[in-house]
Amino acid sequence: MATRLNPYLSFDGDARQALEFYKEVFGGTLSVNTYAEFGQGDTPLADKIMHGMLETPSGLTLMGADGAPGEEYKPGNNFSVALTGEDDAELRGYWEKLSAGGSVSVPLDKQMWGDVFGMCTDRFGIQWMVNISEAQS
After folding, report:
1. Which residue ranges does UniProt annotate as crossing the membrane (predicted)?
2. Fold topology of 4-132
């Protein structure tokens, strides 16, 4: 899989409705995972979207999720840029450069879904997510 660069949108509890709307607009395949699917079935977030991805036949990719408790929702500043792929060295190199001089909110480390993931804000105030998947055989 090639490395992808795409927007990642944050929502205030209505990610499912928003992503379904974008599917109507752009077409394609929508996949969503709830917080319950990742061990948070006994929380108020159980049915909310932890991660959603819309992929269209024309090559567009849009990702989104509902914010977790304690995350402030700010319309107009509710997006990140996501870098995803399998090339560990390439993506770690991007991470090092993007996080240098900025701030790290989630260190680049193995996560509960099995991938290596991190979040940072670069020195210009842009939020980035880096997700490194294991190579598919």
Report:
1. none
2. 2,3-Dihydroxybiphenyl 1,2-Dioxygenase; domain 1 (3.10.180)
